[in-house]
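JOB MANIFEST
job_type = single_chain_structure
chain_count = 1
residues = 149
[input]
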Amino acid sequence: MVLYRLNEAHPALRLRGEMDRVFGDVFGGVAGMAPQGWFGRRAFPAFNVWEDDTTLVAEAEVPGLQLEDIDVMVQGDELIVKGARKTDAEEGATYHRRERGVGQFSRMVRLPVEVDADKVTARLSDGVLRITLPKAQAVLPRKIEVKSS
């Protein structure tokens, strides 16, 4: 089997980079922060969402961000995380590689069930934003008492 290694000067990679830039500009994304699937780029922030009987939990990787850099909102069946990653560029520095995105970001995750927005909590620890979303009473199982006639 023969393996080929493409270098960054290859026309296909230059085209991909240009398309990433165009889609990032059009859809308001920051380079490297476009949604998953657009030309192989990962969404930012990356999310895990899971549930138990009464709660949904969403965790997002937000390394380097502080509390004041992040806004969390629940609107209908959508969880929205917005924020900004500040640049840490040294004045006059010349970058040889820059893969960490900077600037504003917004990420929406559609929730699988209705949640009680008034009881949602969020905690930031070690670069992980953990959002706890209690399920709405309407979607929780309710035991029905069976009576004899």
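[summary]
Residues 11-26 form the longest helix (16 residues).
The CA atoms of residues 67 and 116 lie 23 Å apart.
exit_status = 0
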